[in-house]
Amino acid sequence: MHRARRHSAVHSTVTETPVITTSGLSKVYRSRGREVTALDGVDLHVREGEVYGVLGQSGAGKSTLIRCVNLLERPTSGTVTVAGQDLTALAGRGPRAGRSLRQARSRIGMVFQHFNLLSARTVQDNVELPLEILGVSGRERSRRALELLDLVGLGDKAKAYPAQLSGGQKQRVGIARALAGDPKVLLSDEATSALDPETTRAILELLRDLNRQLGLTVLLITHEMDVVKTICDSAALMRGGRIVESGTVPELLATPGSELAQALFPVGGEPSAADRTVIDVTFHGDAATRPVISELARTYNIDISILGAAMDTVAGKQVGRMRIELPGRFEENVVPIGFLREQGLQVDVADTAQPAPAAATLLKEGAK
Ligand SMILES: Nc1ncnc2c1ncn2[C@@H]1O[C@H](COP(=O)(O)OP(=O)(O)O)[C@@H](O)[C@H]1O
Ligand SMILES: [Mg+2]
C-alpha cells in the first residue's frame, strides 16, 4: 500500500511548454584589459515542471549561465525568457524597468551553495526577507514564512538563528526563502556541494518533492552524476561556455557516444587481446531483462566475455550497460552487432585505444 502511494506521488508533470529559454546567450567578462568569454551562444530550453541539470567542469560557464537566467549577471548578447517574459528586454529599458525586472525576478527562486543567510536574523526573518522587499504586510509575511518552513520540514526552527542549524537545515532555510515569492522556477547553483552525502540526498529529495508538489521547474548545477540520475529529467553538458550535449536523460542514454551517458554509466574494461572487438551495449526497459547475450552466443556460436557492466534506475526506468568482447576484428563482427541492434539494443563500438572520455573527469572537478 505504501508503495502504491509513493508511486502515485512520484509522477512528474513535465509539459512541453518552455519555461526557461535562452537564445544565443553570450557573456564576455572584461577586466584589466583581459577578455573572458564565459558564455558563447547558449541555447537552453527548460520545459515546465522538469528538473534540469547542468554539468561541466569548473570554469565551463555554469554559474554564469544561471546568473544570466535571473539577470543577476547582464548578458553581453542574446535573450533570456522566463515564464513567457523576456527578461533581457526588461533589463534593457533603463532605470524605470527596474521595478518590472524585480517583479519578474521574484518569480525566480535562487538557492546558493553557501546558503547566504543573514546571521543576525532568525530563521523566520530570513525567509520573510524577500517578502519584505516585495512589500508584503507583516502578518501575511509571518503566515507565509511559517507555512514555507513547514514545507521544508523546519516548522520548529522559526525562532532559531542560522548558527544554531546544521548545514542541511541552513539549506532548507535557503530553499524556503527562495520559495517566498511563489516562484515558477527555482535555480540552484551547487546547493548540495557543501553538504555530506546523506544530507545531500535529503536536500535533493526535498527539491524533487517541491518540483512535484508545486509543479516547480528546477534548473540546477551539479557536479555529481548521482544527482542527475536521481532527480533530473533532462541534463546538459557545458564546456568552454557552450552546451555540447543536452536532452532528456533517456535520450542521452540512447545517444551513441554521449559523454553524459558514459558519465552516468561508466563501464570500463580492457580487451584481452589485440584482435578483439569491444562493444558497449545499453539496455533499456524490456530489453534489460531478455537474455540477448546468451542468444547472441548461441546464434553465432561465439564466445563472449563480459568486461564490465552496470545496472541502474534512471528517471524511474531500468537501464543497464555492458561492455562485452567478441572474438575477431570489427569487420568480422558486423553481423553479430547488427543482430544486437535488431533486438532494439544500443550498441557503441568502443575505441579502446582512447581512454574513457573527458566525462569521467567531469565528475571529479569540485565546485567553484
Ligand atoms: N566576474 C567575473 N569576472 C571575470 N571573469 C569571470 C567572472 N565570473 C566568471 N568568470 C570567468 O568565466 C568563466 C566561467 O566561469 P563560471 O561561470 O563561474 O564557471 P563554472 O560555474 O562552470 O565553474 C571562467 O573562466 C571564469 O574565470
Ligand atoms: Mg560555478
From TrEMBL:
It comes from the Bacteria. InterPro entries: AAA+_ATPase, ABC_transporter-like_ATP-bd, ABC_transporter-like_CS, ACT-like_dom_sf, MetN_ABC, MetN_ABC_transporter-like, NIL_domain, P-loop_NTPase. CDD domains: ABC_MetN_methionine_transporter. Pfam families: ABC_tran (PF00005), NIL (PF09383). Gene3D superfamilies: 3.30.70.260, P-loop containing nucleotide triphosphate hydrolases (3.40.50.300). Residues 20-265 form the ABC transporter domain. Transmembrane segments: none annotated. The keyword RNA-binding does not apply. The keyword Phosphoprotein does not apply. Keywords: Amino-acid transport, ATP-binding, Cell membrane, Membrane, Nucleotide-binding, Translocase, Transport. One of its GO terms (cellular component) is plasma membrane. GO terms for biological process: amino acid transport. GO terms for molecular function: ATP binding; ATP hydrolysis activity. Part of the ABC transporter FtsEX involved in cellular division. Has ATPase activity. Belongs to the ABC transporter superfamily. Homodimer. Forms a membrane-associated complex with FtsX. This is ATP-binding cassette domain-containing protein. It comes from Streptomyces palmae.
